[in-house]
Structures are given as C-alpha cells and as structure tokens.
Amino acid sequence: MKKEELSEDELLEKVTSTEYKYGFTTNIDSDTIPKGLSEDVVRIISKKKEEPNWMLEYRLKAYRTWLEMKEPDWANVNYPKPNYQDIIYYSAPKQKKKLDSLDDLDPELKKTFDKLGISLNEQKRLSGVAVDIVMDSVSVATSFKSKLADLGIIFCSISEAIKEHPELVQKYLGTVVPARDNFFSALNAAVFSDGSFCYIPKGSRCPMELSTYFRINEAGTGQFERTLLIADEGSYVSYLEGCTAPQRDENQLHAAVVELIAMDNAEIKYSTVQTWYPGNKDGVGGVFNFVTKRGICHKKAKISWTQVETGSAVTWKYPSCILKGDHSIGEFFSVAVTNNLQQADTGTKMIHLGKNSKSTIIAKGICAGKSNGSYRGLVQISKGAKNSRNFSQCDSLLMGDSCGSHTFPYIEVKNSSSQVEHEATTSKIGEDQIFYCNQRGIGTEEAIALIVNGYCKDVLNQLPMEFAVEAQKLLEISLEGSVG
Amino acid sequence: MGLLEKIEQYTNRGTDKVSNKTAYSKFIDLGFPSLKNEEWKYTSLKKIIANNFEIENQGEEITDQEIKNNSLDLDNKVVFLNGELYQKPTISGVKIEKNIDHSPKYNDAITALNAALAENGYNITVSENTIVDKPLEILFLTKNKSENLAQYRNEIIVKKNSSIKIIEQVKNLSTNLCFSNMFTNINLEEKAIIEFNKLQNNNESQIIVDNTNINQETGSNSTFNTLLFGGAFTRNNLNFSQNGERCESNMNGVVILDNSEFADNHTYMDHLKANCESNELYKGIYLGKSKGVFNGKIMVRPDAQKINAFQANNNLLLSDDSSINSKPQLEIYADDVKCSHGCTIGQLDEDAIFYMNTRGISKQDAKAILTYAFASDALNKISIPYLYDVAKDLISKKLNVDLSF
To answer: Which residue among B107, B179, B308, B400 sits deepest, i.e. has the most Cβ atoms within 10 Å of its Cβ?
Structure first.
C-alpha cells in the first residue's frame, strides 16, 4: 500500500481543514428560562431545583459578589467579552417523570449518547464505568448508582445531593473554591444548575472509574456545572470527565467549578478529556471554557490532575493543588492541543504548605495553524513547607509558522530546605527526525504521528485505559493530516 | 515628604526644571509602579519612595583619595562626582562627552522620570573600525548631605566593526540614602562588539534602579555581565532588541546577597529578526534575610526563524529567611526555533560537603568551595582578567572565606 506523500504545507492545510465530529444538535424538548441574569433568575434556578433556603442564600451572596467583580484580562487570550445578559442560564431537557432505569430514557437523548460514543448500556457491560451525564445544565442519567451505594459511595448529581445529603454539601461546598475566588467562580456559584457529587467513605476503594459527561445542546445557553468530590480518609477514586457541544456560529460559555477534597491518606485521580467545539477554521463560534478547578490535600493525601485539552475556542483553566498536609502530593499532567484560531491559557498552581510535600508538573503543548497556546503556572513554597520538592517540565511543539507558544511560570520559594526545578523548551519537529524516519521507510505523515505520540506519552500514560485510547484518537482528529 | 511630592515641588519652581515635558506628564500619569503592575509584582517601591529624597544636589567634596579607593584604578576612567563630569580620558577613535540627549526614550514611569529630569550622563561614541583594547572604567560617585535622588542618562554608540569593553560602578559614599535612577541606551551598529560589566558592590545606603536598552544591528555581539554583591535595593532592567540578522546577545549575572539586601533582575530579550542567538545565565546566592527576584523574558517575533535562545536561572537559598521569586518566560511566535529556559532553586549538596569533610576540608571551606563553584559558570564569562580577580575577591569577602586557591 503506497501512501501519498504530502509536503509540510499540504499537511498543514489538511490539519486546518478537519471538521468537528461532535457538531450535531439533538432535537429534544427542553425547559429553558429567558435570557439574562438578575437576582430573580438566581431565585428561579434555585426554585426549579427545589433547593433548600441555605442554598438560595449561598447563590444570592455569590451573585452579589459577582456584581462587584471585573472580568479578568490578565490571561494571554483575546476574545470578545461575552454579554452576560445574552445568555440563557437554565436549560434542561424536559422530563416527564423521574427515571428508574436507562431504558426509560428519551430515545432522542439516547441517540445522542450513541453518536457520542457513550452508549450507556455498553459501557455498563464492557468497561464498568459509572457515568453521570449532564446535558445543558441538568444531570440526565447516572449509571451504576445502586451498585456503588452498596459500598457506601455516593455518586449522583449535585442537585440530588443538595436534597439528600445536605450536611455533606453544606460542609464542603465552596471550601476549596470560594465564590469570591474569581469572576467565573462567583458566576458559577450563583447560577450553577447541576453537576456531579461524589463521596467516597473512609478506607474504601472505588471499584470502578466514575465518569461525568457534559454536553451543551441548546443554543444561546451557558453551561455552569459544579463538581464536588470528597475522598474521605484512606480512600481512593479515579474520576473521568468528558465534554462536547454542537457546532454553532455563536460563542457558548462554559464556566465550571470543580472542587476536590482529599482527606488524610486519600487519593484522587481526576482525568479530563476536553473536546468542546473549537470553532471553525476561521475562528467563528466555539466554546469559551473558563474553568476553576482546585483540590486540597490533607496529610499524606494525593491529587493527580490529568487533562487532554483539544477543544474550546478559548480555554482559561488552571487545575490546582493546595498541599496543606504534611507529605501530601500534587500532580499535573497536561496535553493541550490548539489548532486554527484556538487560544489556550492553561497550567496549574501548586501551593505547598505542608512539610515534605511534593509536586510534579508535566505540561505538553502542541500548537498548529494560527493558534496560541500558553502555559501559566505557579509553584509556591511557603516558609513552613520544609523539605518540599517540585519538578516542572513544560514543552511546546510548534507546527506551522503562524502559531505561538508561550510559557509564564511563577516560582516563589521561601525556605532553604526545598528544591524546585523548572524547565521549558519550545521547538518544532526536527527535519532530521523526519529524515531519519523517511530513511527507514516511514512516510512523513506517519513520522509526525510517531513523534507527536512519543512527545505526549508521559501524559497519555497517566490516563485510565479507556481514556487513553480515546485521547489518542482525539489527538489524531485534532491534528488530522499530520497525525494518522 | 514622599518622593512624588518632592518631585512636584521641584518642578513647580520653574518650567526650565523639566527637560522633556511629554516624558514628565507620562511619569505623572503613570506614577511610581505598585505591586499591581505585573513587572513589579514582587518588588515594592513603597518604602523607598516614602523617603525624603532631595532632588537638587547638595554634594560634599570627594577627594582624589576617595576616588582612588572606590575605583578599580584602570588607565581609562570616566568619573562623575555628585552629578558632574569630573574626569575623562582621551582615547583615539573614541569621543566622550556629556550627554544632552533627552529624546523620548522611555519604557515605563521610572525611565520617563529619568528622561524628564536627568541632567547629566555620558555619551560615548566609538568611531568605525576602532578596537579599544583597554577596558574603560565608568564611575559615578555621590556623597550628599541629605538623602537624594541622582539621575543619569547615558548613551553609547559603537559604530561599524568596532569594539569596546566597559566596567561601570555606581557608588554612594555617604550614609545618607541615595536613589540612583540610571538609564543607558546602547546602539550597536553592524558587526560592533561590546562587553559591558556592571559591578554593583554597594553599601546599605545605595538604592539603584537601572534601565539599559541595547539595540543591535546585523552581526553585532553584546555581552552583559552583572556582578551584584550588595546594595540595599537594586533593580536592573536589561532590554535587548536584535534589529538585524546574525546577532548574538549574552547576559550573565552573579548575585550574592546577605542581610536584608534586595535585588531584582529583569531581562527582556526581543528577537525581531531571523538567525540570531541569545544566551542567558543568572546565578543567585541568598544568605541572611535577603530577597531575590528574577524575571527573564524571551520574545521571538513572527518570522524570526532559526533562533536559538537559551536561558538559565539557578539559585541557592542558604538561609531559611531568604527567599526567591523567579519568573522565566517564553513568548514564541515563530516555529523554526530552539528556545528553552530552566530554573532551579535548591541548596548545597550534603553528600559533596560530607565527601570533602572526609578528606580534611572543614565544613565552612567545603561550603565556600561549592558556592564558588556554583557561581563560577557565570563568572567565567568575564573576559577582563583583572575584573575577574576583583570579583573573586569580592565573593570571598561576601562569603567570609578564603578563596585563594
């Protein structure tokens, strides 16, 4: 079989002409409220969710804080500021009754999930992954719930948790990411309509991967989901998150908040494959992804963030770890791919407070087309964090002469027993590397695929099995033509 | 009275006090930078500008002996005493005169203030095809009856195929605080070469904010060594811009601080044209309650292909009360480049100290040897042997050990 040889320019042309494969909409009735944001809208959302009074108070307080805040502009991204009065803050697929099993699910909805490749039943049988699906703003299906309940694990939508486990939600909500933390977290706290909640009891190990799938469907809506994950002492959980949106000419807003709490000796592994609609090749449309993710590690706890970012028109995301306890560990593994006119400003914060705390940062950026990718990270070692250790590595791979790659690390060290290492490189795929492969009968296109895969391997290896396969496919789609 | 009020009081006395009115209004608009300014995130001027600095000089006499004691005593010396040009050498092919350029070259509020009010400085022009073999020493000495603001505005032009080596020192001889606001503009024409050494070994009454802009034309080569061994507060801004192809820029720094000294080194490397190279190496050693800041930015503009840009910042924190904030940055808009930066913060290797102990080297000596070895990578870039010895001497004094090996 002879593969057609493409010149580098043609490869790039192919790269930039690939279309978004998740760009369909689903025709299901949905319950939406009018556009705009006001105290009344916050009250309506709270009422629709049948929330207790303390929750409404929490939302209103966040809303009032938000009114006084200004949208941040320090990130290295340019985008038209969303008009916050032109967004629908609540949209839910209409449901006649509460679902008992997935067979009762709206056939249209089911079709959507099949198209996305998340056939609920199949996943149930094959991979043993429990999935919570959030469409537009509301959680529509949670699988495996009863099986998990036997182990004392609570895995449900956050609105359900507010009703059924108010003591847990009230105790932990907003403790890691307070509403006043930033502009988008305040907005999220005011209007979040759903998300996932998970509690792993003391000493237990979650037997399966937990997963949430987010999808924006309705036009003109924003998605504001909230995830709260608590791993009690000595427990372990691995959590996956995926997301897609239909192809639209407008910019949709996604402002999520994720809070992780790892108690003493607990371990949380949080993986994200982010594939929001990135806009077309002229930069029209696409999702604005402004996300606040943060976890707190108590004594000997570990939080590991893994992310594969290929979607969104604009990404603004810094999954962080507060290493509060002694001997706690924070990890961040990231692959961020930008193409066409996408912009990504992403990275992490590692805040060392406990003694002997350790953190590792591996960030790999791939920029193609006219896109811009930035790594922005903070490593802060406070005075009391004796013997702490950090290793950071951020590499960028440039494909095409009109893309940009940037690194903005902040390193702050305040004691003399800690060690911090940071290194960053920027380069393109070497002509000699490709020549070497060509020489051995590997075509240019396969050679690039080989090199990109090798380049991302450190991060992809961190993903759970099911995701690793999906992520590799994603890289192929995002850079199709050069990766195949 | 704070510095800002003093400046306003001074300029209100007559319009002739301001040399560049646009620059002055720019300064008034911007005001002194606060911690909210990203470039001053870790460096607070608040306490400094609260001091009662006099704008007009009330200099005390500086004797020839004092000049001798504070200089490196090289053959070619340019000496400024309390803001006035006191001595200059005659070198063939080199024109040295008082700088009267107040063209609107400023990057921020501090440089605008300099452009608006600075009255003195040097202008050095090296004519075409001239190799100045002896290094030129430039010395700024102040001795004031009161706390004062000293501003200098300098310009160096190195013409085609010429080269020069310079050692610059700014020193305050009195115990009254002196705030030196220095601005130097260096233009390197085709294939010109410069080695500029900044020796900053100051006492606790010296505050320096230094801005140096280096503009390089095709094939030029610049090396900038910053030897920072003391001073209450030092802020260095080094801005390189490569306006032609095949330029090379080198920046090296050795920073050793003790007590409550503070130093902030900002470098900005702007690659505008293709086929250029830059190398940067900064070594910091922090003792006592000293604080250090490093901020290095490499910018590669669109179409500036085939750039090699390397940056390294290594730091030793030798005391629990010392701290360092480091911000190495890359901003790359061209694809066919090799750029990297590395930053480390750590301590001396316990194993290495133990190894030396077992061979009869005392703990203190072992530490000194390792610390010196740490700094020597950057120190070795100095091409003037005499200056190298002076620097080594100063390091051993600062570390309080004998380095005569």
So the answer is: B179
Which residues in chain A are contacts of B332 at CB distance < 8 A? 396, 398, 404-406, 426
Q: Is residue A285 part of a domain?
A: yes
DSSP helix/strand/coil, B84: strand
* CA–CA gap between residue B52 and residue B9 (Å, rounded): 12
Question: Does some domain include residue B378?
Answer: no
Task: Tell me whether residues B320 and A415 touch, CB distance under 8 A.
Answer: yes
User: Residue A9: its pLDDT value, please?
Assistant: 54
- Cα–Cα distance measured from residue A462 to residue A88, given in angstroms and rounded to the nearest whole number: 37
A327: left (phi over 0), alpha (psi -120 to 50) or beta: left
Q: How many structural domains comprise chain B?
A: 1
Q: Is residue A1 part of a domain?
A: no
Q: Closest Cα to residue B332, out of A374, A78, A314?
A: A374
Residue B138's pLDDT band (cuts 50, 70, 90): very high
| Contact (CB<8Å) A423/B342 | yes
Distance from CA of B340 to the nearest CA of A (A): 4
The CA–CA distances, whole Å, from B14 to A23, A30, A32, A448, B58 equal 69, 73, 68, 68, 19
Mean pLDDT score of chain B, rounded to an integer? 90
Over 50: is that where the pLDDT of B85 sits? Answer: yes
User: B169 pairs with which residues across the strands?
Assistant: B139
Q: Using alpha carbons only, what angle is made at residue B108 by residues B107 and B111, rounded to the nearest 5 degrees? A: 80
Mean pLDDT taken over chain A: 81
- Of A396, A406, A411, Cβ closest to residue B345: A411
Q: Are B216 and B358 in contact (CB under 8 A)?
A: no
Residues of B in contact with A399 (CB under 8 A): 335
A65 near A179, Cβ under 8 Å? yes
Share of chain A above pLDDT 90, in %: 33
Can you give the pLDDT at residue B251? Answer: 94
Higher pLDDT, A38 or A95: A38
Q: Which residues of B touch A (CB under 8 A)?
A: 38, 42, 302-303, 305, 315, 317-320, 322-347
Half-sphere exposure of B20 (CA within 13 A, CB side): 21
Instruction: For residue B42, list chain A residues with Cβ-Cβ distance below 8 A.
Output: 412
From the list B210, B182, B167, the residue with the least C-alpha distance to B121 is B182
pLDDT digits (tens, 9 = 90+) for A327-359: 999 999 999 988 888 899 999 999 999 999 999
Of A406, A410, A416, the CB nearest to B318: A416
Q: How confident is the model over A455-460, as a mean pLDDT?
A: 87
Question: How big is the CA angle at A43 (ends A39 and A46), to the nearest 5 degrees?
Answer: 140
Average pLDDT in the B138-148 region?
A: 91
For A411-425, write each residue's pLDDT tens digit.
999 999 999 999 998
Average pLDDT on B380-396 reads 91
Structural domain containing residue A364: 8-478
Which of B311, B331, B349, B351 is most worth mutating to test chain A (most A CB atoms within 10 A of its CB)?
Answer: B331
Residue B92 CB neighbour total at 10 angstroms: 7
Residue A100 lies in a domain: yes
Three-state DSSP class for B333? coil
Q: Is the pLDDT of residue A250 over 80?
A: no
Does the residue B117 lie in any domain? yes
The pLDDT of B266-292, averaged and rounded, is: 94
Task: Print the domain residue range for B203.
Answer: 3-349
B392: helix, strand or coil: helix
Could you give the CA distance from residue B241 to residue A293 in angstroms, rounded to a whole number?
A: 39
Helix ranges, B240-283 (H): none
Closest CA to A424 of A366, A363, A372: A363
3 state SS of B374:
helix
Q: What is the pLDDT of residue A254?
A: 86
What total number of domains does chain A contain?
Answer: 1
pLDDT digits (tens, 9 = 90+) for A165-181: 999 999 999 899 998 88
Domain membership flag for residue A483? no
